[in-house]
Amino acid sequence: MNLRQLGSRLAALQGRILMTLCVAAALPSAQAEPRPVKAVEVAKNAWFVQGEAALGSTANRNFISNAGFVVTDDGVVAIDALGSPALATELLAEIRRVTPQPLRYVILTHYHADHIYGLQVLKAAGATILAHESGKAYLNSDTARQRLQSSRRDIAPWIDADTRVVPADRWLDQEDLTLRVGTTDIQVRHVGLAHTPEDLVVYVPDSGVLFAGDLVFRGRIPFVGEADSRHWIESLGRLIEIRPKVLIPGHGPASTEPVADLELTREYLKYLRTTMAEAARNLEPFDDAYAKADWSRFEHLPLFKAANRMNAYNTYLLM
Ligand SMILES: [Zn+2]
After folding, report:
1. Rounded to the nearest whole angstrom, what is the distance from the C-alpha of residue 80 to the centroid of ligand 1?
2. What pLDDT does 38 receive?
3. Shortest CA distance to 270 belongs to which of 242, 303, 237?
4. How many Å lie between the centroid of ligand 1 and the Cα of residue 113?
5. pLDDT per position as a tens digit, 110-136
6. Rounded to the nearest whole angstrom, what is the distance from the C-alpha of residue 89 to the centroid of ligand 1?
7. Distance from the CA of 144 to the center of ligand 1, in angstroms?
């Protein structure tokens, strides 16, 4: 083959590769297989499953949040329950894959839909559900009812008429609690009012793993909602002091550089507060203040478009 023939062969090959890439890119995402619930061990006896960085939908089965579990010599402690009963069933199967120990407890970091719709399955499996008592307000709220109704419509058939919001079996009213399960200490700390009033985090000193719930978001913009960002910033400071070795956030991948992630979330919240407080003080219209702010440190993060403007607006109103 001479050089010219080789050149035209290469060009043809390149064309075929390009075409393949374009066809692959054009495939509708609905055809993609939903992400399986797959437990990954992040430290000795500490596992988690990672949801997608997306909004809940029928296609992703509402698998948009993480859940974790800790295996002790006297049973398993799960952290959060995932976003639909089917996902919780898969979580149970993953627990059974790695240990014969029974599921004893579920510690709920907070009552948000994407973390709780699997509770009924875990309770039926024999687990005692623990949550902070500030979460009681959610159970009978309009927010909870409306959210469940819209989830039944938007995330059918994964959320259906049988899906319920399950109360805790044990409501914690203290700041800190250490559960001793077998020979493992499980520290439960109330860090709300931050993302929600009832925020709990779970720390396992043996392995240095911190399950941080939605106080820390990795690889995406947090939903600030009507959260109290001042107290949230303080709580992040308390978590930084723990100096955990591994951090499992409520959303996104596990982190082996927890302090950096805690600091990034804190920086984001601080920036929201500083810019929006200044605007509110100067009676500057929100749109102007938003356009003027420099979001470059955060705009590359997933869900920036979906969440940032709302976060800024809520903070502006708060101020
Ligand atoms: Zn969440």
Report:
1. 10
2. 97
3. 237
4. 8
5. 999 999 999 999 999 999 999 999 999
6. 19
7. 14
Q: Is residue 245 part of a domain?
A: yes
Say what percent of the chain tops pLDDT 70. Answer: 90
- Residues 6 or more apart whose CB falls under 8 angstroms from that of 198 comprise 110, 111, 131, 132, 133, 134, 135, 138, 190, 192
Q: What's the CATH code of the domain at 68?
A: 3.60.15.10
Query: Is 16 domain-assigned?
Result: no
Cα(115) to ligand 1 centroid in Å equals 6
CA atoms within 13 A on the CB side of 235: 27
| Span from the CA of 214 to the centroid of ligand 1 (angstroms) | 5
pLDDT tens readout for residues 71-85: 999 999 999 999 999
Q: Indicate the number of domains in the chain.
A: 1
The pLDDT tens digits for 238-288 are: 999 999 999 999 998 999 999 988 988 899 999 999 999 999 999 999 999
Residue 264 lies in a domain: no
**Domain residues for 125?**
35-256
How many beta carbons lie within 10 A of that of residue 162, not counting itself? 8
- 189: in domain: yes
